[in-house]
Amino acid sequence: MDSNMLKITINGVASEVPNGTTILEAAKLLDIHIPTLCHHPKLSVFGGCRLCIVEVKGGKRPVISCATPVADGMEVKTSTPRIEEIRKTIIELILSDHPNDCMICEKAGDCTLQELAYFYGIRENRFAGERRTYDKKDNNPFIERDMEKCILCGKCVSICDEIQGVGAIDFSYRGFNAKVCPPFEKDLNCEFCGQCVSVCPTGALTGKMWSYKGRQKDVREVDTICPYCGCGCSLTLHVRQNKVIRVSSKENTINEGWLCPKGRFGYSFIDSPERLKTPLIKENGKFREATWDEALDLIASKLKKIRSKHGPDSIGGLSSARCTNEENYIFQKFIRAAIGTNNVDHCARY
Ligand code: SF4
Ligand code: SF4
Ligand code: SF4
Predict the structure, then answer these.
(1) N or C: which end of the chain has fewer CB within 10 A?
(2) pLDDT category of residue 214 using cuts at 50, 70 and 90
């Protein structure tokens, strides 16, 4: 046996995993699902929700599988009546401090907490009591922050710090008063990448422009490429009634699901009435609509005039990262071969 590999049996299925693998990761390799709320494979272990508890043979108490490394010969059970009872109690406790908002919540139908409440058949709550309520709304332009729905999983804090490198939010206060917020509870003022929104397992963080446009079950997903810059991040458009109502990105893409604010929130131009649909020619200080033939003839005659009067180096061409490689290639060819200058550049050099 490879000395770097460890034997583990999960729910009676034997396997070998590399040294350093956690029980949760080992279960995933075997396609065995363990519920989690605070775990994310690309973030450091938080161990806050305790939902991923499992029983290890010989152990007195259940352990959290996200933070427990596999030991050689370990025998693990991921679902027993005792484990499921504890998980159900954890969900009940979380829901005891959570608004009953599923009917109007943006996240309903796509909410991990709602899924778990459904799975455990929780209707009445044994732990009724005081609930955190917050009146102040965050007036930032992009992200709806409803902290009454926050379950303090910490994923937004970690992703903002570890992936985005911004650290715009963190835990404040202690115990029952604990809350995730920007410094001094001011309005969020950050890069607005929306990475925090993408990992939030509840409706605590959503896009402001998404409100009441449609639930996840109502949308058709269309995978495409972001048109903004030369990075070419993968986007998934959430389309309802032929309108884009939300944008996300999948984890298994080149950009690993991370986007910038333009890619995630800058899509309203698609339906803008100000979008150019035909070329415009300026005459007497005013634009008028023109045909492509008219516009191209005008450009050609003006370029010829400038070149013969001032020489080819008096002309420069600026292309766009929104164009395809082929279009950019043709453009530089045109500037170099047809105009005769090397004055050519574009807006996305890295
Ligand atoms: S966050 Fe989830 S559980 Fe909470 S109200 Fe919204 S859909 Fe329901
Ligand atoms: S939008 Fe981006 S920068 Fe702002 S809090 Fe969320 S993760 Fe951090
Ligand atoms: S806002 Fe969402 S991601 Fe952040 S701690 Fe609360 S539930 Fe978790």
Answers:
(1) C
(2) very high
